[in-house]
From TrEMBL, chain B:
It comes from the Bacteria. The chain crosses the membrane at residues 24-49. This is MNN4 protein. Residues 237-249 have a biased composition (Polar residues). Keywords: Membrane, Transmembrane, Transmembrane helix. Residues 156-249 are annotated as: Disordered. Residues 172-194, 214-235 have a biased composition (Basic and acidic residues). The lineage of its organism: Bacteria, Bacillati, Actinomycetota, Actinomycetes, Micrococcales.
Length: 371, 249
């Protein structure tokens, strides 16, 4: 025990030379301790630390939670509608009204001390996902897909399915040549023209492109059952550059088309009988003088039937600046056709296939007074 | 004053200073913040108005389509040709053809590169329909002039408009732009030709004047051609809605 007391005393006085002793570890028993600052009292700032008020934590109020829940739920609804492709719904009145309600709740939460934090979070969610931002994304998606369905009435949907073409008498469509008849007449016409020109001028022939059937719109926002027929073309392998020979070729073709019940050929490129303005003729055919034109374009039809016949002569020897050659090379690269010479093609608009005739007539019964 | 009071006062001063800095930062950046919000709002409204314009058009609500497209005109800084293009297209569908032409010509001036393709196609169609209307009114000279103008618009369409890239940007992806241009050109040539060959008022001929025998065949063919043109015009006059014009918009 003596040793313990000695040790303690030595600790208090050793090396201090009269200074007051330091308190024992843990302080004097019963000594008055410095009280920790009461709640709300400021703490002295310390270097390197931010001074803060130690506010008592209180739970957020219901308004804050409602704002947060509403914003998240509404964002989910918007994203779901986006995924479903409902751009019209996103920009609809209902969504706008709901968006306003959500914004109102968020604003109310921001003005509430205990709802401010959650209100701010809800505000960030709403700024990121709202009718405008999600609607914009959806509009982009719709634009990329081209799927603008809109909200059509039943009447509009009915009109959209009209099988004929607005402004055209469907009975005329039924009474005129069918697709198959046009195709057959084209084949026969081409064969006779080829035979005649081969016999007279020794031409050899090459087919150009494939037959094309292009659907025709009905004028009510939908597709009709009619198509535009473009035949496979026929081109000579030989160039035709002599003016007199061009005239002879066209005259021979004229004879054949008349035999097939078409009207007389007429020239788009010749200013003496073309309805096109001479300046436009020069632009289209390289010159307003047939002697120096790089293209001759003759035309006829079998109106009131739908067959339209074109006979074009391309002549590279009349290319003054190389532009025509470039254009012809580009065309040849696309279709494989010869760069110059005669080309024949038939086009027929608004024709009905015989295979679709019965269905066409049946559908027409649902459209009394249309046309 | 105790050290604790001094510390509390220092803390209050620090907080006041921080609040003041925050306030001035907020005031200083307010114009920028408002500009940013306005910019974002403008961008987002473009999508909304454009979508509404197209959707309204699809359901034949041309007035609604025009109204939505006019919303795109406000501060028309981005892709500026689209606002007049959409307005002109809606007006064209509503048969307000001169107004539609003015708007589409405005769009053509604002369009660049491949943007001009769709504008030219619609502009040519509108001018063609103006020609149809003039012909229906019996004004053949004006009709021929308008067909010529429409043909010029079509022929001057850049060759690039027939490319795949142009097709990808088409406002009518279900139709081939090249086909539309070629179809319009051929149709306009025919209409100009028909207009040229319409029968003009003839001076009374002396009864004893017979046509030359050598011209018989030519006369017959001319008659057939004129008959075809007359029948076609009659058919179109019976139904003003029939213009034979495509509607690629």
């Amino acid at each position: 025990m003596v040793m313990d007391h000695e040790k303690q005393r030595a600790r208090y006085i050793a090396g201090t030379e009269g200074a007051p002793p330091v308190p024992p570890p843990g302080g004097y028993r019963g000594a008055r301790r410095q009280q920790p600052p009461t709640a709300g009292a400021p703490l002295p700032p310390t270097s390197g630390a931010t001074a803060t008020l130690d506010v008592e934590k209180k739970p957020a109020n219901a308004l804050g939670w409602i704002a947060l829940a509403a914003s998240v739920l509404f964002a989910l609804i918007l994203l779901g509608t986006l995924v479903a492709g409902g751009t019209d719904i996103l920009y609809g009145v209902t969504m706008l009204a709901l968006q306003l309600v959500v914004v109102a709740v968020i604003i109310a939460a921001l003005f509430s001390a205990r709802g401010r934090m959650l209100g701010a979070i809800a505000l960030i969610v709403t700024i990121l996902f709202n009718v405008a931002t999600v609607g914009g994304m959806s509009a982009l998606q719709t634009s990329a897909s081209g799927n603008y369905e809109g909200v059509k009435s039943d009447e509009q949907k009915h009109e959209e399915a009209y099988p004929a073409i607005k402004g055209t008498d469907p009975q005329q469509t039924l009474s005129q040549q069918s697709l198959e008849e046009v195709r057959a007449q084209s084949d026969a016409l081409f064969a006779d023209i080829r035979d005649r020109l081969t016999a007279e001028f020794g031409f050899t022939w090459v087919p150009v492109g494939d037959e094309d059937l292009r659907p025709e719109r009905n004028g009510y926002g939908g597709e009709s059952m009619l198509v535009e027929f473009t035949s496979t073309g026929w081109a000579t392998n030989e160039p035709i550059q002599d003016y007199a020979q061009k005239l002879d070729v066209m005259a021979a073709i004229d004879d054949v088309v008349l035999e097939h019940g078409l009207w007389d050929l007429y020239s788009f490129n010749d200013p003496t009988n073309s309805g096109i303005d001479p300046s436009m003729i020069a632009k289209l055919y390289g010159s307003d003088d047939p002697l120096t034109q790089n293209t001759w374009e003759y035309y006829t039809e079998n109106y009131p039937d739908p067959l339209r016949f074109y006979a074009n002569i391309y002549d590279l020897s009349k290319d003054s600046d190389g532009g025509f050659l470039t254009a012809r090379q580009a065309q040849s690269a696309r279709t494989g056709e010869p760069l110059e010479g005669l080309q024949l093609v038939v086009i027929a608009s608004g024709v009905l296939s015989e295979a679709d005739r019965a269905e066409f007539e049946k559908k027409l019964e649902e459209y009394p007074g249309f046309g | 004053m105790t050290p604790q009071d001094e510390a509390a006062a220092a803390l209050l001063r620090s907080n006041r200073r921080r609040r003041s800095i925050r306030r001035w930062v907020a005031i200083g950046t307010l114009p920028l913040t408002l500009a940013a919000l306005f910019f974002v709002g403008k961008l987002l409204s473009m999508y909304a108005f454009a979508h509404q314009a197209v959707t309204a058009y699809v359901v034949d609500d041309y007035a609604g389509s025009e109204a939505s497209a006019r919303g795109q005109e406000f501060l028309n800084w981005f892709e500026p040709y689209k606002a007049p293009f959409n307005i002109g297209t809606a007006l064209g569908a509503a048969e307000k053809l001169p107004e539609a032409r003015a708007k589409l010509e405005e769009a053509l001036e604002l369009a660049h590169g491949l943007e001009v393709c769709g504008v030219r196609i619609n502009l040519a169609l509108v001018v063609e329909r103006m020609g149809d209307a003039a012909r229906a009114d019996g004004d053949g000279a004006t009709a021929a002039q308008l067909y010529g103008e429409a043909l010029t618009i079509t022929v001057e369409t850049p060759e690039e408009c027939k490319s795949d890239e142009a097709q990808e940007q088409s406002s009518d992806p279900e139709r081939d732009m090249s086909d539309s241009l070629e179809g319009t050109e051929e149709r306009l040539k025919q209409k100009q030709q028909e207009q040229e060959q319409e029968p003009q008022p003839q001076e009374p001929q002396p009864e004893d004047e017979e046509p030359q025998p050598s011209e018989d065949k030519l006369e017959d063919l001319q008659d057939k051609l004129e008959q075809g043109t007359q029948e076609r015009d009659q058919q179109q006059n019976d139904d003003p809605g029939s213009s034979g014009t495509d509607k690629p918009w």
